[in-house]
Amino acid sequence: MALSIYVNIYTVKRTTVYLEADLEVLLKLETQRQQRPMAEIIREALRTYVTRQTRQAPPGAGAFASGRTDTATRVDDVLKETAFGQPRSRSRRRRA
After folding, report:
1. For the segment 3-54, what is each residue's pLDDT rounded down to a tens digit?
2. Where are the domains of the chain?
3. Distance (Å, rounded) from C-alpha 58 to C-alpha 64?
């Protein structure tokens, strides 16, 4: 049993969480009730929270289709063709 604890400790990342006083009290009571370490309960709660629903793509993802499949390999040519990142000419600038 002790060996598995030491093996698992190397696969987790340490972080700091700030809790309101009342939440800390509830968490400490839960650790006593379950006879489990606080970190284990926090990890379980976080995993449950972040996996509770399927992740959706960000807004706009997949909204545009160029019909081309090689855009990633032609990125420099595409940016040059569209003049992306180049200063606008005076006639193309927006007026305030």
Report:
1. 555 555 567 888 999 999 999 999 999 999 999 999 999 999 999 998 888 8
2. 15-50
3. 13
